[in-house]
Design brief:
Helix content is 70%, strand content 0%. The chain is mainly alpha-helical and 143 residues long. The chain is built from 7 helices and no strands. It has a domain at 60-141: Cytochrome c-like domain (Cytochrome Bc1 Complex, Chain D, domain 2), CATH 1.10.760.10.
């Protein structure tokens, strides 16, 4: 009987000791988890920022398409409006001037005689953010 009680006491002691160790370990793991989550959150912000930069660098074509610019402006052929190639040649090195035009603040330097056709379309570009306009201008100037 004495052996059973001693075994039981040792067993309980081990269980209590293990539980205390587990509590300590759990707290340590939670602390690590919080630290890891903090790092993961920072990393996620960093990745999101990098992804945003990628979108900014490559999304001008999507804006061009979504706004319907392609119905008048083709990549290499002048149609209703000047081609992207023609626009890019005229505004080469003058992104700020192109941005002013798209904001409705600058003069038309490409086919000014047909500005009346483009004028209603400027409402769409005037409502765009500076970031979107910059993407669009970069897309146009690549041609």
């Amino acid at each position: 009987m004495y052996k059973k009680l001693l075994s039981l006491a040792v067993g309980v002691s081990l269980i209590v000791s293990c539980q205390q160790g587990e509590e300590h370990k759990t707290k340590h793991v939670e602390t690590e988890k919080e630290t890891k989550e903090g790092l993961v959150q920072k990393e996620t912000v960093k990745v999101a920022t990098e992804e945003k930069k990628t979108v900014i660098q490559t999304n001008g074509g999507a804006i061009f398409k979504a706004k319907g610019c392609g119905s008048c402006h083709q990549p290499n052929v002048d149609t209703v409006g000047p081609s992207l190639k023609t626009i890019a040649q005229k505004y080469k090195g003058e992104k700020d001037s192109l941005l002013k035009f798209l904001k409705g603040e600058g003069e038309a330097i490409v086919w000014p005689e047909k500005f009346g056709i483009m004028k209603p379309q400027l409402n769409a570009t005037k409502s765009m953010s500076d970031e979107e306009l910059s993407m669009l201008a970069d897309f146009i100037l690549k041609h």
